Amino acid sequence: MDTDHVDRLRREGRIVIVGASLAGLTAAETLRAEDFEGSLTLIGDEQYEPYDRPPLSKAVLLGKASANHTELPRTRDIDAKWRLGVPASGLDMTAKRVRLADGDEVEYDRLLIATGVRARPWPKQAEAELDGVFVLRTRDDAAALYRHLEARPRRVLVIGAGFAGSEVASACRERGLEVTVAERAGAPLVGAVGGVVGAVSAGMHRDNGVDLRTGVTVTALEGDAAGRVRAAHLSDESVVETDLVVVSLGSLRNTEWLTGSGLGAGPRGIACDAGCRAFDISGIVTDDIFVAGDVARSPNALFGYQFLSLEHWGNAVAQARTAAHNMISPSSERRPHLYVPAFWSAQFGVNIKSVGVPSMGDQLMITQGSLAERRFVAVYGYQGRIIAAVSFDNARWLEFYAREIERGAPFPVEYPTVDRRPEGAQPMPSDFPDPSLPTHGPTVTLTGYSPADRRMVFTPARH
Ligand SMILES: Cc1cc2nc3c(=O)[nH]c(=O)nc-3n(C[C@H](O)[C@H](O)[C@H](O)COP(=O)(O)OP(=O)(O)OC[C@H]3O[C@@H](n4cnc5c(N)ncnc54)[C@H](O)[C@@H]3O)c2cc1C
Description:
Elements: H1 3-12, E1 14-18, H2 22-33, E2 39-44, E3 81-84, E4 88-92, E5 97-100, E6 105-107, E7 110-113, E8 117-119, H3 125-128, E9 133-134, H4 139-150, E10 156-159, H5 163-174, E11 179-183, H6 190-207, E12 211-214, E13 218-223, E14 229-234, E15 239-241, E16 244-247, E17 251-253, E18 265-266, E19 269-271, E20 277-279, E21 285-291, E22 296-300, E23 306-310, H7 313-327, E24 342-347, E25 350-356, E26 363-370, E27 375-382, E28 385-392, H8 398-406, E29 428-429, E30 444-446
Parallel strand pairs: 1-2, 1-7, 2-3, 7-21, 9-16, 10-11, 10-16, 11-12, 19-22
Antiparallel strand pairs: 4-5, 5-6, 8-17, 13-14, 14-15, 18-19, 20-21, 22-23, 23-30, 24-25, 25-28, 26-27, 26-29, 27-28
This protein binds flavin-adenine dinucleotide.
Flavin-adenine dinucleotide (FAD) is lined by residues 18-19, 21-24, 43-46, 53-54, 56-57, 87-88, 114-117, 136-137, 164, 254, 257, 293-294, 311-314, 316, 343-345.
């Protein structure tokens, strides 16, 4: 893009952002901070101005914060036209127009797509519609769930023990409610951190009074005559009597509105280059459509150019800033989104943090503390490199490991570390489930193909 063109764009261009949440707002603020003077339109299907989601499964469920007071802080005036409560329903890439569900159309010179993900609903619609069955993604979901928790259900059933499901279970126990958690894998958090660390989480659930059922799936939800949920049937033929069910089966990417547009968008998100420019369906990079946040799928040089889909707060912010900068910069000044994934969670009084991509790591070492004490750092390795670190109540070390990941530091970790125990001397398998099996709640999805990936095993068919 030549400099004259960029100058004109910065002075009088039209930028449209679809998705008015964390990534959308951050991009808008960045555009204005970088002196974009043209027109800015934010389109959001929720009726609310951007709000923060992490408190929804933590402070809000405990009654320590109200779902209605989770607005994201504003760092500056963005002088934007807001189109809230109306979804974008289509995209015409040739005419450079976004269609809205109310029939309106908005033209753009640059478009940012930040439509995020939504909660995966319970697959059987009639059962999903029973009174007392919830998902948790939006402010309205959290407010409704909170109201039902206030009514003190006899037993809460959480389906899926990823991070979100585990946080809900933790909040329920803190409120003194009986909770059953049903998880398909052998332990909670397995998709995100593997079986070794997942086993620690299982201990936390059980010691805090959760009735944790692993290696099972919920096969049906049953309602009473009034249409209220009353029981759940499990694959081991057991029945759990429950009057409140939280379905926590991961998420679906909000890309359906782009069907037929010619953009490379689908169930795995919207593929983009390292500079956040979206690909079209032929795999050719566009120069006027950018993507950021949970809906994006982008290659990361730190992780073998795997395309990463990250459902992480910090990624949404960093990627939105990069996308916004690149939207109004000449090619020579564009930056790659080179981000070390980072994630946090709080459950059962334990602070959990993760940097890097644990699910790429086939081995781990406990470099500090101990699994038994539930206070440790687990460092994950892949092909001789440190690829991730997860801490339980030991977060202060993670910045160090983030830098180790960035510099491609060798694995196994042989240097001495503070509070290293004999159990941390040797690497062990990190025990991730077969990636082809569904697991609940991974917050990083590896969607690319790396020729160096040796985890694919050819199993000949039996005759
Ligand atoms: C309960 C909960 C707890 C979480 N806890 C943590 C945590 O502890 N740590 C952490 O790192 N991350 C956490 N996250 C994840 C974090 O909140 C997300 O990574 C972040 O919200 C992503 O921001 P985003 O703007 O990309 O997407 P979203 O926040 O999903 O926003 C996308 C917006 O686009 C809207 N939209 C969708 N389709 C359309 C359309 N066609 N037209 C117009 N608008 C549309 C959506 O309704 C939504 O408002 C949590 C998420 C949830 C739900």
